[in-house]
């Protein structure tokens, strides 16, 4: 029996097919429906049975907005080494005509692209990151969105000029009644051995950077290091994402499945959010550990708010982001002084910057202009990137790059992919860096990276709650 909704789908598909054949261009049909509450992690895990491939997980602080994608209805990717890598994705995405089947409008549902960019497309790829393009975006086949406590299911189909009506209808029918029934494994312990990579080289790099900064070659450069872990059992990505959600409620949680690898993290750093013409970025730089209790936490936070070295580190980021905003926004506002952004393991200096996008400035053009901010690159930008290439004893891949989503009306949000790791089988590579300024001391910067590694270490099951 055909329901009214199926009729709507049928009509839309017929129109889309006609259009695709006439224009010889594929058309996206996206069916959105409110559904009963679903656990986003169960949904993510159920992708395994559906074997649709590339999944993603995204949730904003306090899980206000969660999006989980399964399958690859469309993949847009490139290995351009210039700003072309942003423009190419944006242009291809704009080219597709998109038909939405929905009785309501809700940002974060319907056809969206989820993906990201590498940190430095000019750097030759490494073995670890060989499977990652310089830019890769996926429009999922199925997507669960949870917003303000309501759940929505989006089913997407890319309709090509060669498609048949029946197969298109089947595509929607097979998912309409889908009920994910995947049971998450109960938590198994996972022993691991950790290998610190090139620690002494990293410390030397910090020493060299500090002296270059003192010689006025550059103002700030961010240097990162990498730790490799090997576990006794296969790492379960759902457990990692679940633990990050529980332990890092003030961060964005992201997960991106790419072949056999998962790039996962819990970042407190938003690069840019755009909703209609409202644009928001957050400057995050300057760090101190969290306290064992509220009193110590507050005392450490107060210390950070007064600390010259950290205030300089932070102000360089604020200055650059405000200058960038002036180029594409009107009414740019930001508070005079930073406040604190607290996470379980670390607290940061934090300054939000807001503005109203001027006509013609797209989310991707802002991502391109902002990346990397001096929170991940340094200042001046080009010199800092060169310093990183010269001094850093690792390959960043997607660590520190922009990761996030974009919809069909240029709404979306990108974060900076830090506090992250690349997982494959029983192995993980974790990354952490720090802003180096003239007053930096290698030993305390090293300790700062240790704190920044904690969220992922803990989510992987390898850290008790002791603070150091
Ligand atoms: C580079 C990282 O973090 C960045 C560096 C910070 C700092 O040096 O104080 C703080 C927040 C982030 O912008 C990281 O976590 O790997
Ligand atoms: Mg720092």
By helix and strand content, what is the structural category?
A: alpha+beta
CATH secondary-structure class of the largest domain: Alpha Beta
Spatial separation of the terminal alpha carbons: 64 Å
Radius of gyration: 22 Å
Fill in the CATH topology of the largest domain. Answer: Anthranilate synthase
The set of bound ligands, ions and cofactors reads: ligand ISJ, magnesium ion
Count of helices?
11
> Major sheet, described briefly?
13 strands, mixed
**Percent of residues in β-strands:** 25-35%
Q: Tally of extended strands?
A: 23
Low-confidence stretches: none
Helical content, roughly?
Answer: 25-40%
Please, what is the CATH homologous superfamily of the largest domain?
Anthranilate synthase
- Please give the domain count: 2
CATH architecture field of the largest domain:
4-Layer Sandwich
**Overall mean pLDDT:** 93
Specify the overall morphology. Answer: globular
Give short descriptive properties of this protein.
468 residues; Anthranilate synthase; 13-stranded mixed sheet; 23 strands; 33% strand; globular; binds the ligand C=C(O[C@@H]1C=C(C(=O)O)C=C[C@H]1O)C(=O)O; binds magnesium ion; isochorismate synthase activity
Question: Summarize this, please?
Answer:
The protein has 468 residues and is of the alpha+beta class. The protein has two domains: 4-176, no CATH class; 192-459, Anthranilate synthase (4-Layer Sandwich), CATH 3.60.120. The chain has eleven helices and 23 strands.
